[in-house]
Amino acid sequence: MVGKVFEPEACSYVHARPGKSVRAVAEVDPGAHEATGASPPSFDQCYTTHRDRIYRLCLRYGGGRQGFAEDVTQEVFIRLFENFDRIDRGEPIEAWLYAVASRLCISRLRRDRSFRGWLQRVLHGHRETSPSVAQLFERNEAVSAVMAAIDRLPPRQRVVLCMVAFDGKRQREIARVLRYSEGYVSRLLSQARGALAAAGWQNVGREEGE
Amino acid sequence: VTRRDFKQAIAAAKVELGRVEMPAPVAHRVLRNVKRAGRRGGPGLALGGLALAGACAVALLSIVGRRPAPPAVVAGAAQLPDGFESVRTSPDLQLDVARAGSRIGVRSGSCTLRVTGWGQVTLQTGASFAPVEGGVELSRGEADFEVDKRAPGAGSTFVRVPQGTIEITGTRFRVSEGVDGGTVHLDEGAIRFHAPDGRTVALTPGQSLTWPLPPPPSAPPSEDAPPPGAPPAPGVSRTSSGASAVLARPTGKTPRPPARVAPEPAVQAAQEGAVDATAALVERIADLRAEGRYDELARELRTALARETRPLTRERLSFELGSVLSYHLTDRAAACAHWAAHRRAFPEGRYAQEISDVEASIRCTAEGSGP
User: Fold this and answer.
1) What is the pLDDT of residue B263?
2) Which phi and psi angles does B209 have, rounded to 5°?
3) Which ipTM was obtained for this model?
4) Pairing state between β B200-203 and B191-194
5) Could you tell me how many helices (H) and strands (E) chain A has, helices first?
6) Which position has the higher pLDDT, B362 or A178?
7) How far is CA A86 from CA A45, A82, B173, B205, B255, in A?
């Protein structure tokens, strides 16, 4: 029997494997924690479980800038905090967080590139006080170079490319997460690859499973 | 233009980024900000505001419409409040019974009452007594108590007096509460008196204790019981036999109700120490990495790995060491051997995908050796 079961430690529902009869008993999705007798996760548990994953995602999309990652991660968890009681627990919370984080990254990247973002940086003297990951790992030239190349892409192209290259997402999934059409995702991806190829990168073609 | 391999660089970036965790101070700051922001705003704000306004209105109405407490009435044993049962009464008994609550005062005479689920109390003229949550309260007068045997796991109960709390573990004793202080004499069992300043005095049968307790001596008293022949603890008088040891021990604990579990200081200190050591190690690793001192970094990681016992931290350190060997020291043979050992040590490891990527990029064989 295969079913969704609640994993309190993971703050998430996972698919039980056949043979794990005890866990597979819980077939009820939304209240699986009730069926298993486990208490539903608190916000703090979810935060502790998922913060590093979201932080890394924001680092990837933000070109390794830690300030950016911190800000967006904070915004993601504010959304979670505000909607915690209304989120459908029948779905893995990772998917919700991933979608929100991806969309917020695009918004934030676009805002940073806008005149308003530039003005804010000038007026508030905003700058990255913490070194970016690319700087931290500057001895690894390939990593620095690829992060810098991705950082030069426009926000939507960058996020779509990262979702494919880092997260192994398919175009259909990306379209659903970002609420774009598949055609638009395809176009963004193609533009991003074109830009990378023009910058001297090879092997930027279609990923497996794409 | 040098042609660089995008996929290979991405695989390396995955490894580098895969081991990044949100620094602890950042995680703490973000959580704090999230909760602050969540409290300030959000869709629930309007509802919360309405609820708050409603609660204020109700509170205001209750204050405005509050009438003075109803006066006590004089009653006999037949008109006891709920929770009391008369056992013995003197013929001249007159009780003040509050209209609200369960407090009773003995205007004249004496009575022995059974307090449901707690025990038996004999109240003398002038006593004012009430059951409270988890125990009873004697605010003035003199009373004898016989507490029911507590059910296993029920914990102790207490008699609260104006200047302290007497913790009871199943016993018979007498309490006198005057205007400026009081006395307890223990007949059977064991009790502890908790003074408001945190001092605790334990009594054994035959002992009496008077409160308020005299001021504590300037030198901190020992946790151990005093040696035989030592003077009695403050406020404790010995019985005529004088055989029982004095158990006065200022423990600094708060009175029993409500029971509170404080973290063990030693455990807390150990946890804090471990966190500090890990934080120092992370900082050191970051410094060595930033300065490009990879040989030293690898040595540091090996030492830490040998010392570390927590499985998750071991896995992380091992992963860090592997990535240094793979990408910075470019010692492929050592890196491949390390990854093979890592897989054996952490077969269900968190970094399986990243390690596969690294092994592919540096072309390790299945046996864990380099090309």
Assistant:
1) 40
2) -140, 135
3) 0.74
4) antiparallel
5) 11, 3
6) A178
7) 17, 9, 56, 60, 42
* Cα of A35 to nearest chain B Cα, Å: 27
Burial annotation A6-24 (CB, 10 A radius, 16+ → b, else e): bbeebbbbeebeeeeeebb
- B16 CB neighbours in chain A (<8 A) are 133, 137, 140, 143
DSSP β-bridge partners for residue B203: B191
Cα–Cα distance for residue pair B302/A35, rounded to 1 Å: 45
Report the C-alpha gap between B166 and B114 in whole angstroms: 19
Residue B303, number of CB atoms within 10 A of its CB: 12
Chosen for mutation from B3, B30, B283, B330 (greatest number of chain A CBs closer than 10 Å) is B30
> Kind and range of the H or E element at B131?
strand B128-132
What is the distance in angstroms between the Cα of A110 and the nearest Cα belonging to chain B?
22
pLDDT tens column, A150-160: 888 999 999 99
Total-model pTM: 0.41
Query: Residue B113 belongs to what H/E stretch?
Result: strand B111-115
Angle between helix axes B332-345 and B352-361 (nearest 10 degrees) is: 160
Alpha helices in chain B (DSSP H): 6-18, 24-40, 44-64, 265-290, 294-307, 311-323, 332-345, 352-361
Q: Calculate Rg over the CA atoms of chain A.
A: 19
* Among the partner residues B3, B14, B34, nearest to A166 by beta-carbon distance: B14
Average pLDDT, chain B: 71
